[in-house]
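Consider the following assembly input.
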Amino acid sequence: MKHVLSALVMNQPGVLAHISGMLASRAYNIESLAVGATENPELSRITFVVNEDEKKLDQVRKQLEKIVTVVRVQDFSGADYVERDLMLMKVSTENGRRGEIRELVDIFRGRIVDVGASHVMIEISGRESKIDAFIDRMREFGILEMVRTGRIAMMRDRTITEESGVDTSCDAATTSKS
Amino acid sequence: MATVEKATQTINGAQILIEMLVRLGTDTIYAYPGGCSMPLHQALREQRDRIRTILPRHEQGGCFAAQGIARSTGQVGVCMATSGPGATNLVTGIADAKLDSIPLIAITGQVPQAVIGSDAFQETPMVEVCRAITKHHYMITDVRDVARIVKEAFHIASTGRPGPVLIDVPKDVQLDSIPLSDVDFDPPMNLPGYRPEVRAIAPEQVRQVIAAIRRSKRPVLYVGGGCIQSEASEELTKFAVRTGIPVAMTVMGLGVFPGTHPQSLHMLGMHGTVYANYAVDQSDLLLAFGVRFDDRVTGKLEEFAKHGKIVHIDIDPSEIHKNKEAHIPIHADVREALVALNAALTEEDIPDLSEWSHQIAGWKAKFPLGYADAGDAILQQYAIDELWRQSHTMDTYITVGVGQHQMWAAQFYKFDKPRRWLSSSGLGTMGFGLPAAMGVQTAHPNAIVVDIDGDGSFQMNIQELATLHCEKLPVKILLLNNQHLGMVVQWEDRFMSGRRANTYLGPIDHPEALGEGDGSMPDETFPNFVAIAKGYGVQAKQVRSKAEYPKALAEMLASKEPYLLDVICPYQEHVLPMIPSGRTVREIIIE
């Protein structure tokens, strides 16, 4: 089962190494991990896609929270959130089917961002399932190269900030399993 | 600052760091110098009236000595080493402190920032090396951060679930000076992600636990190091005595409940008592306080305490449900939880445990801890038993190495108070005993401190005999010398048809090296520990017969100096009972 965790971390050298080392040494199954700046220059946000059952997920969350430079961890499971993946892809146009490719790019609301003699580069973003479907469509043309960011996600109706860390559902989840 | 009189004067990073140690309560530091920590040692020298610096003979010894202070006092222990090999020599001690949740600060010199990353002489990336084995780690990059980082490090090491914190200090930061007037020695901390304070146990949780106790017929307390860390001994004893619930302790928990109390089931787990393991197995309510369901306690997890409800109280939420699902999980400081439970308990809540107590008494009578009479040979169990008889009224501190002697000490020395028993329990580091004892002795100068050691473990930090002599630390070493790595020998005997594979500690041309000897002890054991001890200026004596042992032991205990008693023991003895790794209580080996 895939879950999305979002962590606010202190923007310091070594924090990512610490987190990825912890995940690796405890053998947690992490499908993707995306790091980036936030509205607060002292904090970064890491979004994880964790492929584990509920019990392991709980451990992943608690172990992340134990890291001193991790300020706040939010589990998006069951919440209303928007998630996006970004992909760049080079597709061959050697077979003279550039028109067909353009049409599919339009349908998937992607963009052609570079055109070469025998290929195009496509940018597409969206949910993972949409991107996976687009990849499937492109296979017959010949995918030359592709690169994807990890997934990023954001809650629809409330923001996660450093301050909200003290009181919310996260702590309750720790002790309410009885 | 005594050394800095005028406000216009400057102070360097090393001086700030040492000043902070003193202000945060450190009175002793174990530190081994080298190129990249010399400024720190210069600052230590300046402050020698306020902080005692002890030179161990190996950085690992210094780290375990700092642990000895921490484990026996509950205060933060501090050790220091230079960069590179000095720093990596601390690594085992740091990992050890992490697994046993010991508040420790390890300070390491680092090459100047200008050459970091260039594979400079004696450069190791200590923060990288230590990430997974510290509670937190710092590299100081600016002299203006020194005071804050030291303060944060002490706070992190000693609060919540304690643990080791590394502070890596590049030499340029040690030497960099700023005006004294610019230094805030009590700076605000910047730890938005560290919230060790736990909420008080909720009233409904107290009611749940008490209701579970009221309904139980076969409750057992399973208590560990968390109860010691939170200074819960008194409340726990009150709770246990009031409810009549028997108490089984982990290796880390020994002494938190009096070992001589009739309700004590003593230790549980792999080498725990039969009655402790039976009681836990049969329990209908397991009160797991300050424990982590370690594999050496549980054996096969699915079978462990499967008949009853589990109440799990721990300060670290990641321990709850980690190995074993708890029915009543409580994230709390165990002492505070016990205070609340003690306050809420009424007479009606106390269950009738007469039948249960009777059953346990039956097991105790049928399966007592014991050992054979080996004639004039000195069995390790007897040696420890006799030590207990002679020393338990002296408020003795016991440290151990790792292996058979450690388990026998856990079984046969009955601890009546917490923090009197120091054992590398989670990591199981051989060589822990002697340096840990050294640390205890610095924190408790007048106490009797005995390192019960094996000849394998002892040799891993034997160089600290020099520290004992030079620093006048009257540690006693009860060396249970069987010329073998006894615990591995035991596993060879039990699980590998007795095939000796590198478990004999004497010369390789001796038949015993391949297990082909006659099983007797040679006239001259190897090495000559008495000669080694004397070479280090430590009193020493060898004993071989049971008849001479009690007197020799008494002589050692009466000595005002460090003393090594080399006790020649057979290697054929096994630590029993034993639940083989990953098995259940039904497969317990008792002979």
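The interface with chain B takes residues 9-10, 14, 17-18, 21-22, 25, 55, 58-59, 62-63, 65-72, 162, 165-166, 171, 174-175, 177-178 of chain A (CB under 8 Å). Ask yourself how this observation constrains the way the partners meet.
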